[in-house]
């Protein structure tokens, strides 16, 4: 007897994970691969924080915490908002989650009904629309481009036939790295408040910016939901820990959802989260390295014909237009991987409209890797076969 697969499960893959799989297969076969595909710090949790967690293991049972996480962690995050933004956020508005991914699931469940419409930028993080779709919420993509710094604006919302129930804004954004200027961010937040559009602010790349500051929605809107993570700035991807800042009315519904879906975030990860706030010097050194990596790519990628980029204001990505190379981005990235040994992510992962023209480079790795990648791409560009010729395996 055959059984059905629920339609909600039939979402597209996260293509960067497929690229990682293909790169790993080449490495297993003995190839040297430079990884510019995955948005993951190569450093891991700061050493001092790891040592503190190590001291806890074996003498703490590490049982369940509250569904919203350790009260001490909420209080420490509250202090982080005060120190970083000068914004006061009550601890009971902070909700620890199993990564930002778990945070998005909870945020979407508590804020939207099945059939609601949520607007988001294209290009943008693909899991937004895939999670929304699996929950029965309708993603409405806003095609953005260089004219708006690849970010949604109030004008975009005004041009929609009907205002959506929600809007997702990521600043800094994945894949473009662009940041919404503070005045424009506040304008968006005020517009959403006045018109009943629930603002979801993805702030997982906060702390990683290069000049232009990132604005937290927690400081400009009482109705917004903030999603943040320990994965990027705090360099704790595999620990799967994030947090939400939510309106007071959402606290109990979120608690009930989390109790049933997750019970609580991993306790050992929360201990690491508490410790990592005391590692600012090491974390800022990571950001300084990202800045050097960014400079290397912006300076050297044009040597290989990559000349048009989105403004890389923050995060650790460069989103490059590759339409002049004469191939769609999936084919182009496959050739780059197999022929040059450089793994990157095709834009189709982020944008179903124009993504075949773009490639995302991640510069979260080491500076020597950035230099080596540019050396390989420069050599590949000089010796590269014509479009349409078979990939040399």
Describe the structure in your own words.
- There is one protein chain.
- The model has no long low-confidence stretch (mean pLDDT 94).
- The strands form 3 sheets. Strands 2-8-7-6-5-3-4 form a 7-stranded mixed beta sheet, with helices on both faces. It has a 3-stranded antiparallel beta sheet with strand order 9-12-11.
- It folds into 2 domains: 7-44 and 281-383, Type I PLP-dependent aspartate aminotransferase-like (Major domain) (Aspartate Aminotransferase, domain 2); 63-278, Aspartate Aminotransferase, domain 2 (3-Layer(aba) Sandwich), CATH 3.40.640.10.
- The longest helix has 21 residues, at 280-300.
- Helix 2 (47-56) crosses helix 9 (267-276), helix 4 packs across helix 5 and helix 4 crosses helix 8.
- With 393 residues, it is an alpha/beta fold.
- Strand 5, helix 7 (182-194) and strand 6 form a beta-alpha-beta unit.
- It contains 12 helices and 12 strands.
- It is globular, with a radius of gyration of 21 Å.
Set out the fold topology.
Elements: H1 15-28, E1 34-35, H2 47-56, H3 71-85, E2 94-97, H4 99-111, E3 117-122, H5 126-134, E4 138-143, H6 154-158, E5 166-170, H7 182-194, E6 198-202, E7 225-229, E8 242-245, H8 251-261, H9 267-276, H10 280-300, E9 317-321, H11 329-340, E10 342-343, E11 345-346, E12 358-362, H12 367-383
Parallel strand pairs: 1-10, 3-4, 3-5, 5-6, 6-7
Antiparallel strand pairs: 2-8, 7-8, 9-12, 11-12
Helix pairs in contact: 2-9, 4-5, 4-8, 10-12
